[in-house]
Give the backbone structure.
Amino acid sequence: MPNRFVVRLHPDDLEGFADMEQSIASELADAALVFARAHHYTLVDRPQVDLLADATVERTDIRVDARFADPIAGRSGATDGPEHAGMPGDAGGDPTHTLVFQVPRPSIPAARLRVHDAAGIRMVEIWTGLTIGRATDNDLVLRDERVSRHHGRIGGRRGTLVYTDLGSTNGSDVNGTRVSEVVLGAGDRIRLGGCILEVEVGEART
């Protein structure tokens, strides 16, 4: 879905939001991000919203221009590590509020899975191309007959980590919702059969 939005308001209406303009823009950007994840859309990076005075817009009305854009170099959410931009007012970005991960480099994991299966609880670092299933040729092998031999895959796509179900028999659930593909963020719980994979922020290595 689009990741750049310009909200056009009549100049008099925009003036009324002068003291809150930045916070309103941030809240709208966060709302767009939450909407995208709830509908399993993929974003290039964190949405950006700008408010613009436009005399051609009638009072009390708005006009929204949306477009696709590549990540802005140096902007939060367009770096090599996980996106640490949190919710509005979150100075410094609490990683527990992170909604979207940047694609980690294979040698410098930025995210990990806490795996709960028949083998117990273990931590697995996430890298792009991580395959998950019951067969022993997977990167993450799960001991559960309800898990397909090649059940799912975590891969990178234009700045995000994306979980994809590989046509499994019993399907994949993320946070209680059946998905075929979804962008992953911190705190997400992937259920495959009786196994739970919890997404956590990893510690990048230099």
About this structure: Helices lie at 11-15, 21-38. Residues 139 and 190 are 16 Å apart (CA to CA). Residues 74-109 have pLDDT under 50 and may be disordered. The first strand starts at residue 4 and ends at 9.
